[in-house]
Amino acid sequence: MNEHLLSRRQFNARCAAFALTLPALSSISSAQPAAPEPLRRMVRFPDGTVVPAVGQGTWHLGQDRHPVAVETEALNSGVSLGMTLVDTSGNYGRGRSEQFIGKAIAGRRDKISLVTKVEGDEVAGDGIARACAASLARLGTDHIDLYLLHWPIPSAKFPGVVAAFEQLRSAGKIRAWGVSNFDVGQMDDLFRVPDGKRCATNQVPYSLNNRGIERDLLPWCAQHNMPVMAYSPLGGDHHLVIGDNTLKQIGAAHGCSAAAVALAWVIRSGKVIAIPESGSPEHTKENAAALSLQLTPEEIRNLEAAFPS
Predict the structure, then answer these.
(1) I need a surface site. Which of 91, 129, 163, 225 has the fewest CB within 10 A?
(2) What are the structural domains of the chain?
(3) What is the pLDDT of residue 2?
(4) Is this model's pTM higher than 0.70 or not?
(5) Is residue 147 flagged as an active site residue?
(6) 34 φ/ψ angles, rounded to the nearest 5 degrees
(7) Counting Cβ atoms within 10 Å, is residue 21 exposed (0-12), middle (13-18) or buried (19+)?
(8) pLDDT tens digits along 209-245
(9) Of the residues 92, 147, 206, 231, which is catalytic?
(10) Could you tell me the sign of the dihedral formed by the alpha carbons of 129, 132, 134, 137, in that order?
(11) Pick from 168, 130, 162: which is nearest to 149 by CA?
């Protein structure tokens, strides 16, 4: 039996060899599974294109409200956090917003869903094509992902506008087109025009304190499988909702800002894209939290009681 016993020297040698394996075993046992990526809420357009439910508006950017470096950091922080839809217009700051965006996203264009607009007084003749070319130059890109008619015009002009949009789409200058600030009657008129049903979205104001589209436009768009793009989703410059106590209380329960709660309410249906504007990285990060925030039915009821339609 003694032949099976280890000498003291053999025993110590084997203990030392075993000890060398302990760090590796320890690292295996202590390794934690990687935290899952937060669920980011998305919205699908009729053509299958998918975009984040919270994007970034840029009405005042590039116009000296904040230092350019700060606004650039804010915009790119949003892109990094999943807010890759960026909305602008050729008339924001007479093109300065587009110029700012073009510089800010240089090198990241392939990550961006770029939205810009043409004005109603530019639609005559080849005006839409010329406006689009000017926007492309300011943005430093060869295509626009979504091109919108900024404000309604007489319905009699819809066929010409749709034809011009379709020519740009066929030429690869734009990927899709839509409208902004249209009511239900105007949407009906648009859909009667040849190719009018190619309209991808209607961009309108929508927030807790501006719920008018719930009466008719929002149901109309849902019936026609058209997502709505909500501007001023926090109430607009002079009517911000973020000071409301109900929003603050719900935000505290979720560990986020009142702004994130207000945006989560706007995008709750999965058929609305919110485009809040932010000129500061801190506010951009607060807004981005809405992409992964799921409100409970009770929280939604409490918010809608605090902001009756």
Answers:
(1) 225
(2) 52-238+273-283 (3.20.20.100)
(3) 44
(4) yes
(5) no
(6) -60, 140
(7) exposed
(8) 999 999 999 999 999 999 999 999 999 888 999 999 9
(9) 92
(10) negative
(11) 162
